[in-house]
Fold this protein.
Amino acid sequence: MCGIIGFVGREQAAPILLEGLRQMEYRGYDSAGVAVRSREKGLQVRKSKGRLQVLADLTRGGADLEGCLGIGHTRWATHGEPNDVNAHPHVSSDGRIALVHNGIIENYLEIKEQLLNHGVVFTSDTDTEVVAQLLEFHYKECGSMLEAVGRVLRRIEGSYAFGIICADYPNALIAARKDSPLILGFGENGNFIASDVTAILRHTRDVVYMSDGEIAVLTADSADVFNHEMDPVVKEHSHVDWDAAAAEKGGYPHFMFKEILEQPDAIQKTVAPRIRENRVVLDGFRLTAEEAKNISRIYMIACGSAYHAGIVGKYVWERLLRRPVEVALASEFRYSQPLVDSRTLVIAISQSGETLDTMAALREAKRLGGRTLAVCNVVGSSIAREADDVLYTWAGPEIAVATSKGYSTQLAALDLIGLYLADLLGTVSPAEYGEILTELQRLPDKMRQYLTDYAGAQYFASRYFNHDSIFFIGRNLDYAMGLEGSLKLKEISYIHSEAYASGELKHGTISLIEPGTLVVALGTHAALFDKAMSNVVEVKARGAEVLAVTTETHRERMAKTADAVLSVPETHPLLQPSLGIVPLQLFAYYVALQRGCDIDKPRNLAKSVTVE
Ligand code: F6R
């Protein structure tokens, strides 16, 4: 999704802006642009459709643009096709105000109509240009940029993060946010705004998270933040632990590959600090036994892979807590009049912490009086800050659009919370509690063990990469894992793929199986292995080619029937998806590689979906 960076300081802004935009390329974009203010030339704007390199070539890496104050943007089109004109920054008619925007202005047509009646001429199809023109209108009216920004914010509806510069304010970078992330960063040679911390990690790790309704005015040495009533706000500074190298490829061919290999460390970082003296101790979430017993309903709300993590979580929690858990797609939950009250626990799962639907669902849950807990990876993200409690996954920056370590640390976090609640409720025996805890701590090593030899996944990818439709089947936790395996494959390789609960095959899907159809059969769940075998036999009888994923214990039996087998080490049955997902991620990765796909930036997708 769109990325924003802004800089005001003692260095030439344009190269800094371009480098920051490059760090945000992973988010997905279709055009890019920068605006820089120079003493001699006023506002200079360069923008272009396509890769950032086009913009870099256009400006000789930014060298052509003088000035130490500027804003930059990567756009992911919502209003108006991706082209040079619709790219940001947008400039007011008099050429004195430039603005970049993430989000959507919902009442832009109405405002545009009014401005047209005042004779304003528009050049683009975007909602953002309307804001630039409205800003000029109010600025002319009141003569103060800050006041004009305040007036604009009171007029517009929707979501936004803005970066604004004005030719009349040579030292001021203005920012504002509502429902779209924006941070302030403080460096030695100047100050920054950014929609994503990775954009400024090379310059600073000293940041301030802006809250909804706030406006900030930055100069090279100062930052003033105001609330929507223009009263000054004192903001707390945070230190970002991620280092710049963690967000670099570091010699790996793709971020996705690097991040798959980083999973054992990421799980270890998520789990180890939360286990003390053989008990789960959750830093960000504490309940009394009484509070836990008072919970009558549990929801997990999320999107995409995080939703799939929630489905695994449901199976695990229902086993451990002996009470129903509902997993809801955040985009559905928010409009479904959910049955949330003060006895409902709502878990919002989000790697980025900025997914708009998850955010809206969380707000709805809070409005209805539910107790909310966020499971997030990005510290200080909107969802993390708005939930009553937060448990961070410590996966480090995830750059590939398709999640891997984000998902597997979500599983680990849900395992921890599930154990914690089961202990409070007394629904898990001490022996099983101890066994799961021990296995949770062994997961990183078992995953490392698998990751020393994943040639099988690579080999089978080269054998099957040219199929055009692939089915994933499994039962229970294997089904939950199949949903994620299938999404991984389709999103990066563009092969049509569906995951089915094996028991459902006979109710319709089996008619799709014909000679040569590839079925990825998941049989890692020991208790249901025989059932998994029966389903393999069933699809083989219809001519399917079967690639099976099972545990080492069951490898031999599976190999007697399936055409190809990948096996992973065995762990506690409730944790098995954490290991089983790794060959599926690698299979998807290698299939996409064989097909020459843009693995880290699949078409049409964005890393953090901040629009509905
Ligand atoms: C798929 C993927 C997406 C995200 C989804 C939610 O590989 O990454 O499906 O899981 O967009 O994102 P977060 O977890 O940031 O809320």
